């Protein structure tokens, strides 16, 4: 099976498209939809991020092992995101 490491940059307001691990930076993530916790959690290098959570403040680079299927999930998410004019 084809496998590689995929990297994505997330900034304030972005929704995490797939589970992964932060490789650079720090951010506060709203995990309420997963945990019910109303207070954003601070995440940094080495911490896990989960699909569906939202970056409240900060910027991170995160990675995940991926083959073609996860790659398409990320592409589909990006394709469906509204552009600057929307």
UniProtKB/TrEMBL annotation:
Protein transport among keywords? no
Which EC class is this protein assigned? translocase
An MF annotation (GO) of this entry: hydrolase activity
Localization per record: Cell membrane; Endomembrane system
Q: How does it sit in the membrane?
A: Multi-pass membrane protein
List residues of the P-type ATPase A domain.
8-60
Q: What is this protein called?
A: P-type Cu(+) transporter
């Amino acid at each position: 099976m084809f496998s590689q490491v995929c990297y994505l940059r997330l900034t304030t307001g972005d929704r995490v498209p797939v589970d992964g691990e932060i490789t650079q930076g720090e951010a506060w993530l709203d995990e309420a939809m997963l945990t019910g916790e109303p207070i954003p959690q601070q995440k940094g290098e080495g911490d896990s991020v989960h699909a569906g959570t939202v970056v409240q403040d900060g910027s991170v680079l995160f990675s995940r092992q991926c083959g073609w299927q996860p790659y398409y999930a990320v592409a589909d998410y990006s394709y469906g995101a509204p552009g600057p004019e929307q």
